[in-house]
Structures are given as C-alpha cells and as structure tokens.
Write a structure and sequence with these properties.
The protein is mainly α. It has 2 domains: 10-56; 74-170, no CATH class. The chain has 6 helices and no strands. The chain has helices at residues 10-35, 37-56, 74-81, 85-123, 131-160, 166-170. α3 packs across α4 (85-123) and α4 (85-123) packs antiparallel against α5. The radius of gyration is 33 Å and the shape is flat.
C-alpha cells in the first residue's frame, strides 16, 4: 500500500541523507569523545575542590571542646555528647592508655628494625649491604620513630588535658615518657 499524500521517491533519499549525516557526525565527534572533555571538566572541578579543602585546612573535631587556654573542656564535651563527665574522663583515660601502648609498640619496632639492620650489616661486612637496603631500613626506622613520637604527643596532651604543640611537648617540664 502506498501512503496517501507522501512522495515515496523522497523516502530513500532521506534515509541516505540520515545515514550520511550519522556517519559524518560519528567521524567528527569520535575524536572529541576520545578526548574526554566532560571527564576532564569534572576532574578539574574535583581538583579545584581539593585545593579549596587544602587551603581551608583540616577541620576541628566538633566533639572536642576547648577553653580559651586550649585546655580540654570536659564539662562542655559531656554536655555536647549527653553523657556524664565521668564517661568523658573514662574515654580520655582509655585513649591515654592506648596511646601509651602504641608508643611502646612503635619504639620496640624501631629498635628491632635497627638491630636487625645492624646485624645484617655486620654479618655481610665483606659484601657490605647495598645503599638501597640501608636507606630502606633507615626509612622504616624513621617511620616507626615518628609514629612513636606522635602517640607520645597524644598521650602528653591527654595527661595534661591541654592541646599543646609538638614544640611545647618537647620543652615541657613533665616527663615525655607515656604513662
């Protein structure tokens, strides 16, 4: 059956033109799709957001309340958490004990890696250890020592109930050894 009012001769021409246009569009748009402009734009926005986050700095933990002299305000923290102050004191004491254990574990790890490194260097004295081995052991020991220092700092902050800096920790009159 023939459609009424339509020119049947134009239908194959339209189909050819449509197919030709699809081919041209594919040839033109394929390189642009491979370039990934949309993904580049989204990633650039993400990088911009990351730069903004870095510029603003780390946010403070809303659960930790400080008074004007940067000491921990236990009453305010307990009111905010809707628990008694004794519960906050218990949690701080648990964290202090945890940081003391972490400090001792990291110090033990640093000493063990140092001893193993010296033993390996002494045992292989004629064939002296490679520089990459010595640098690697030094890096591992440094990481362990830095983590031990960080946990000792956290322990000191909890013991003194004050958020002090690393410089204040090093110059403090109290013992730095975690308890």
């Amino acid at each position: 059956m023939r459609p009424v009012g339509k020119n049947t001769k134009d239908a194959p021409d339209k189909a050819k033109r449509r197919t030709l246009w699809r081919g041209i569009r594919l040839v033109v748009s394929a390189p642009a799709a491979c370039f990934g402009g949309k993904q580049i734009r989204e990633n650039a926005e993400y990088i911009g957001d990351l730069v903004q986050m870095i510029r603003t700095g780390p946010g403070t933990d809303p659960r930790v309340r400080l008074s004007k002299d940067r000491s921990l305000d236990v009453l305010s923290m307990s009111w905010n958490a809707q628990v008694p102050p004794s519960e906050i004191e218990r949690q701080l004491d648990n964290r202090r004990k945890q940081s003391a254990r972490s400090t001792l574990c990291y110090l033990t790890g640093a000493v063990l890696f140092l001893v193993v490194g010296f033993y390996h260097a002494a045992a292989a004295l004629p064939a002296s250890p490679s520089l990459s081995y010595v640098v690697g052991m030094g890096a591992i020991c440094s990481c362990f020592l830095l983590l031990a220092f960080y946990h000792a700092l956290v322990n000191w902050q909890i013991r003194t109930r004050r958020l002090g800096t690393a410089r204040e920790f090093l110059h403090a009159d109290e013992s730095w050894w975690p308890s």
